[in-house]
Amino acid sequence: MHRPGPEAEWQGGPHRRRARAAALPTGANTAAKGGGSDPALILEGALLDHAVEQVVVGRTYNSGQGCVNIKRVIVVGKERGEQMLAALKERFAEIKVGDPKHEETQVGPLSSERALNGLLRQIQEAKNAGGRIVHGGNRMDSPGFFLEPTIITDITEGNPLCHQEAFGPVLSFYVVDSEEEAIRLANATWFGLGSYVFDADVEHARQVATRLEVGMVYINSCFAD
Predict the structure, then answer these.
(1) Three-state helix/strand/coil letters over 100-137
(2) What share of the chain in percent tops pLDDT 90?
């Protein structure tokens, strides 16, 4: 895991830039943590099969209810983006949703009815703004607060979901033409808790990590060693 932050480290939340600006002149050794809309950058040299598996785990861990879970995927290159989206759709279709006490369960319920309804509202608003539901998007027909594992793409920067944290098994999927665009899009949010960079060239991935406005960056993994 790469930690690029300065002495005063502000992770996540819509007020992070103002808070950091106020704190740094004091010289205080300060850290604060809020929410996250954590992007995973899939660079041109990334091993796609590995990245797919890491994204599935990173998005569905703890039923997607983790502050530093992978929430956005940004793939460099149209063809690679199509390949990864197809692979993720197939893997999401295989995810076993159910009682967390059962060993085979991979995704359990949301924390509450309110949390579930909030996600359903975000999904509908994203769809209304032109987003495309690739998989899922619905409440499951079973007792409890269960949401189908969901993938949404064709998200413009004017789409509300582009600037929100989806706290559950909802993955936002983007494809860009260049690494520079991927970095810009990753930083185009008020949230700045964590991020992920995937590339076979680890040193290059570390260089990209230094340009991300986040508190921590994971390299080629959704968990710290």
Answers:
(1) CCCCCCCECCCCCHHHHHHHHHHHHHHHHCCCEEEECC
(2) 73
Would you say residue 172 has pLDDT above 70? yes
CB 185 within 8 A of CB 177: no
pLDDT of residue 11: 43
Give yes or no for a contact between 40 and 74, defined as CB atoms under 8 angstroms apart. yes
- Beta carbons of 217 and 4 less than 8 angstroms apart: yes
Q: Are 69 and 34 in contact (CB under 8 A)?
A: no
Predicted confidence (pLDDT) at residue 14 exceeds the cutoff of 60:
no
Secondary structure letter of residue 32 according to DSSP? E
Q: How many residues does the chain have?
A: 225
| Residue 156 burial (CB count, 10 A) | 11
